[in-house]
Design brief:
Outer membrane efflux proteins (OEP); alpha+beta; 63% helix; elongated; 457 residues; four-stranded antiparallel β-sheet
Length: 457
């Protein structure tokens, strides 16, 4: 099986390639246009094309209506098992503070003392010293220890809550990324299918001109070669479409045999935030940073608890003893103190202090990493916005004008077909470059949404 043809952009993310340069699939449009020119030589009227690149939605093979990205994002948030699992982990952790702050279990004791027989209760009535006792004991940690243990557990739960939010944002970003790639593939696939239909007409026109001596064999062979390449590209597009849909259904927790997913055409998403606003939002709202901060708070509470562990714990017990009415009943109250091993507690305190410093440094490293990535993605968004504007306002219109001028010269038999073909390829490649850059732009915007918590339509 062929591997998906993706390349890494400047952000390290994967985006679809243009399936060859020059692209053999959309090249059929060129031959179709050339066929119309050759046909026009036998017709008194010549219709000038207004645009070389056709609409990406025309002739799409998918019959299902397009699904908006926001609907898939909401579906993933509801149904994705990773999101659900992280939510359950957080909910489970919220029950830990009550457990660690509760008193130790109360211990009940049944005691029997017999004389002259090893069997239980055998000598209870035969000796004045025999008795049956029942009692209870309770350990009492030093005041302040239990609230500190609850505090440590609460910070753990808060960290898991932020991790759950990070998992949700990761899934949303992955849905967006795969959706953008699938939109690129499906739109390009529509172009290839339309081009394949036109290629059959080009082959017929080229062969007809060759038979009457108005063309050459090289044009016929070139048309046949491009037809074979377009069939290969269509097959590869189907492969990529299936692979990306499988990834998207996995993220949505849909059955793989469910209906195909059809994407909407991509368009640039306006990004109204400044770099300073994004960096501030990152410090306040990034779940990875917030999770690290909760871990730092937990270690600070752990240090405080380690200091408190130098204090002794206590135990209280009470027992009632019955002597079968030979003597008066006995009542026993006990109070004990557990003295901690100071050497061990010093080691625990040193460990807690080192862990606190470690988590502080890890937090700082995470902040720097995330801020650097936000800055990189912001630069990519700004640069891609400028490049998209250059494509739409300059490069593509200029290439179209060059092709129109070349077409007029070709119609008067003053230009060879290769020159016209080259100018047409410039238009097609620029259009594909634009679509590819659009995928880069939308992927960078999705990444910034995940990192900063901003929400864009």
């Amino acid at each position: 099986m062929k591997s998906a043809r993706f390349h890494r952009n400047s952000s390290g993310r994967f985006c679809p390639f243009r399936f060859g340069r020059p692209v053999s699939g959309v090249l059929m449009l060129i031959f179709a246009l050339a066929g119309s020119v050759l046909h026009a030589q036998r017709s008194p009227e010549i219709q000038q094309p207004t645009s070389v690149v056709t609409s990406p939605d025309a002739g799409h093979e998918h019959a299902a209506p397009p699904t908006p990205l926001r609907d898939l994002v909401q579906e993933a948030e509801r149904n994705n098992p990773q999101v659900a699992a992280s939510g359950h982990a957080w909910q489970a952790s919220t029950n830990v503070p009550k457990q660690v702050s509760a008193l130790p279990d109360t211990q009940l004791t049944l005691q029997q003392f017999s004389v002259g027989s090893p069997r239980p209760f055998a000598g209870y009535t035969n000796s004045d010293f025999a008795y049956v006792g029942i009692g209870a004991s309770q350990e009492l940690p030093y005041p302040g220890k239990r609230p500190l243990r609850a505090k440590v557990a609460e910070f753990d739960a808060a960290s898991l809550h932020e991790q759950a939010e990070g998992t949700r944002r990761d899934v949303v970003e992955n849905v967006q990324r795969v959706y953008f790639q699938l939109a690129y593939v499906q739109q390009t696939l529509g172009t290839l299918l339309r081009s394949d239909q036109l290629l059959g007409q080009i082959e017929q026109a080229t062969e007809a001109h060759y038979r009457v001596g108005q063309g050459n064999q090289q044009d016929v062979l070139k048309a046949q070669l491009q037809h074979t390449k377009i069939l290969q590209d269509i097959a590869h597009h189907h492969e990529l479409d299936g692979q990306l849909e499988a990834q998207l259904k996995q993220l949505l927790n849909r059955p793989q045999e469910s209906p195909d997913i059809v994407t909407e055409p991509l368009s640039p998403t306006p990004f109204p935030y400044t770099a300073a606003e994004l960096l501030q939002r990152t410090r306040d709202q990034n779940p990875d940073v917030r999770a690290r901060l909760q871990i730092v708070n937990r270690e600070a509470a752990q240090v405080e608890l380690a200091h408190k562990e130098f204090r002794p714990d206590f135990s209280v017990g009470y027992m009632y003893q019955n002597t079968d009415r030979k003597f008066r009943d006995y009542y026993m109250l006990t109070f004990s103190v557990r003295l901690p091993n100071r050497g061990r507690q010093k080691a625990e305190l040193a460990e807690a202090e080192q862990n606190q410093e470690r988590t502080k440094q890890e937090l700082q490293a995470e902040i720097q990493r995330v801020l650097a990535e936000v800055q990189q993605q912001f630069v990519m968004v700004q640069t891609s916005e400028e490049q998209l504007k250059i494509y739409t306002d300059g490069l593509i219109p200029q290439a179209n004008a060059t092709f129109q001028a070349g077409l007029a010269v070709y119609q008067s038999n003053k230009q060879d077909f290769e020159s016209l073909l080259s100018s047409f390829l410039d238009v097609l490649n620029l259009e594909l470059d634009y679509q590819n850059k659009l995928v880069d732009h939308e992927s960078a915007v999705a990444r910034l949404e995940r990192l900063t918590g901003v929400s864009l339509p």
